[in-house]
Structure formats: structure tokens, C-alpha cells
Amino acid sequence: MPFQGSIDAVVNLWTDEVMSHRPEWRDGFFVDKMKVDASTSKGISIDEMLRRMDAAGIERGFLVAPKVGRKGHPSTWHLPYEVVLDAVKAHPDRFFGLAGLDPTEGMKGVWEFQRAVEDYGFIGAHGYPHWFEIAPDAARWYPFYAKCIELDVPVQLQVGQSMVYAADYPCRSVGRPITLDAVACDLPELKLVGIHVGIPWTEEMIAMAWKHKNVYIGCDAHRPKYWPQAFTHYINSFGQDKVIFGTDFPVLDFEKTTADIDGLDLRPAALRKLMRDNVIKLYKLDARGVSFSEG
Predict the structure, then answer these.
(1) Where are the alpha helices (DSSP H) in the chain?
(2) Nearest 5°: phi and psi at 213?
């Protein structure tokens, strides 16, 4: 039976309102390439999302307000923070908000991010280096990193290869996990989460999390039954305090993902940390009334 009470650190809203902001190429990517169910790709209500989360034993989710692409790029789109805020306000016991970052926005983007944390109650930042073709260790990200330190919130960054070939325009894979090394050395106070497992450079991502006390690995976007053996071993042994659960829904289905993890036969303590306790500690959710797992 899947772990009950898990916290999904990477979730995308997929409502009709969100679909109105997404570009037309979405089905070509999500359905044809990522194998998302066609009916899901067309959009689902928040109530249906919550039903699916309940069936998978997922108690809470971090909703991303993504900022994707750059001006003039065919894949560019930004989801207004207010869309996620409305969902969090409607279901405060189920959702937290993450503010997407666009490194090309400069200080305007930094101030918008600050408002999202201070005024909207968002608990962290989220970025897609590939979409901008700006690596995590590039200077344009550093003002956002400094603000994360000031606000004491983590930042998630997609690492590994770019899976995107949007509107017949490929995004370069600028997010190799090793690019987090310079960031963590320059800013040891910054809490960094390398999401998407780092595939195909998973062992490089593991090395970054092992080296730096404030670097963590998010396990979203790749089905657990296909995880590299080195990553499963890391979760179940010396890396059990440095991993957090996620799906990147709808890229991964909630129930299939938790069932896959159940099939890994992880040690009970390692499973609790992966699915709940690590993310509570990292994001200080206990101060927001979220309790650690029992056992």
C-alpha cells in the first residue's frame, strides 16, 4: 500500500483557467512525448485533482506558477501568481504556492517574487533554466538566489537534460547538475533543490547533494520504476535526508507514481523521509502546522 500523507513538492495546476495561459503546442509535448492521458491534458478541475491526490495518499501539493521561455520564443508563457494564489486560498489545507522565476526579468522579477512570498505566502521559488537557455550558475539567476536567502526560502531548479522540443524549437540542456556546484560554493546559505532527478547525469546530481549540505534532489518527472539504481540506493541509504518526493503532475500520474515507489520496498525510515519529513524540514512546514510522520 502506498505511503499515506505524502507531500508532493512539484505539482502543476491544469484547470481551464490555466489552459487558457498555456501555448497551443502543449498536447504535442505532454500527450505525444510525455504520454500524459489525453483527457487529462485537456484540463481537469481542482476537485478532480484533489480526488486523484487522495487516491494516491497525497496530503498536500506545492503548486507551481511557472515562468517559461523568453520574449519572442514560441514556447514563452507565464502563469500569473494570482492563479495559484486563488487555488491555495480555496484549499489552504492542501496546497502551498511556488513562484516561478524568469532570469531575464531582472530586478522587476525579483520584486515580484518577493511580493509572492511576503504578501501571498508562497513558500519558495521554482525555475526552468533550459527554457531560457541560461544555466543555473549564470549571473542572471544570482539576484533571485540572493532574495531566496534573504527570505529564507528554497529554490527548485530543473536539472538534467531538457525534455522539451516545443513548437519545433529545441531547448538546449544547460542544466547539468554540476552547474549547481558553483552556485552552492558562492552561496552556501542558499537552499537548492535539483528537480527531475538529474537524468541522465543522476550520479552527478547525487555528488552535488553529497558535497553540499544545502543541495537536495527532487525525484519528480521520471517514473520511479525507471529510476537509475544508483538513485534508488541513494534514497535508501546515505542520501535519505537529501531527497524530496514530487510528480510534476501531470507529467507523472499521482497513483502510478506512489504505486511505483511502494514497489521499491524502501526502508520505512527512508520512505518517510522521502515522502514527507524531508520536505517539511526543508520548507519549514512544521511552522505552518504540518506535522512530521509518526514512526
Answers:
(1) 16-19, 26-27, 38-41, 46-55, 81-90, 106-118, 129-132, 142-151, 179-186, 202-211, 229-236, 254-262, 268-272, 278-283
(2) -65, -25
Q: How far apart are CA 282 and CA 84, in angstroms?
A: 21
Grid coordinates standing for 236?
535508501
Between CA 133 and CA 234 the distance in angstroms is 29
pTM higher than the cut 0.90: yes
Q: 3-state SS string over 150-202?
A: HHCCCEEEECECCCCEECCEECCCCECCCHHHHHHHHCCCCCEEEECCCCCCH
The C-alpha cell that represents 101 in the structure block:
522565476
Residue type at position 239 = G
116 neighbors 124 (Cβ within 8 angstroms): no
Cα–Cα dist 17/58, whole Å: 23
List per-block mean pLDDT (blocks of 10 residues) for the chain, which spans 295 residues. 96 89 62 60 89 98 90 74 97 98 96 98 96 95 98 97 64 91 98 96 98 98 95 98 97 96 97 98 98 87
